[in-house]
Predict the 3D structure of the following.
Amino acid sequence: MNEIDEMLSLYGLSEKRSILRLLDDFQDEAEIKEYCWKVLRTYPDLKKEAWLIGLEGGDYIYSFEGHYVFITDDIWSFNLIAMKPVLKLLVEKIKALKASGE
């Protein structure tokens, strides 16, 4: 098991889903990344729990309101992995934010 798999397992995210396929009406990963971070930053208890940093970015576990998300954020790609209810919550907020023009 590599370090990322260990991190996912530790936070119960090994078999969870990606947000990317739920936001297929967005232009690209850069747009999804922008909106994901805007929404995540609205949670006052957002906390970085664990991370692996590389030269070009990193992999992170964040928590908010008792939920965990795994984020890959580097110069090549972005992805957010979470349990289905958490993805649903974030997708609704992201789509609402985009619709509002912010």
Q: What stands out?
A: The first strand starts at residue 17 and ends at 18. The beta strands are 17-18, 47-54, 57-64, 67-74, 78-82. The domain at 3-99 is CATH 3.30.160 (Double Stranded RNA Binding Domain). The mean pLDDT is 94.
